[in-house]
Amino acid sequence: MLTGFGGFALTSILTHLVFIAISWWALQALQFDKLLRANHVLQARVLYILASIALGSTVSNFFLDYLQWSQQLPMIFQ
To answer: Which residues cross the membrane (predicted)?
Structure first.
């Protein structure tokens, strides 16, 4: 399915971006207002961005590992 490093690199970039965007969207449902100080909007936005990157990258790495392992399973029977 993914031939060579180029295909895997492109897939990795795209999945990271997609899962970071999904994480950003999902984190919008949480109310961080009660945890953050008032009038610290910039810090709140940076926190949302960093949390989205951390969560999205973790989920993307899991997805990519699972994809790679599923492609390597047929090699057991060779």
So the answer is: 7-27, 47-67
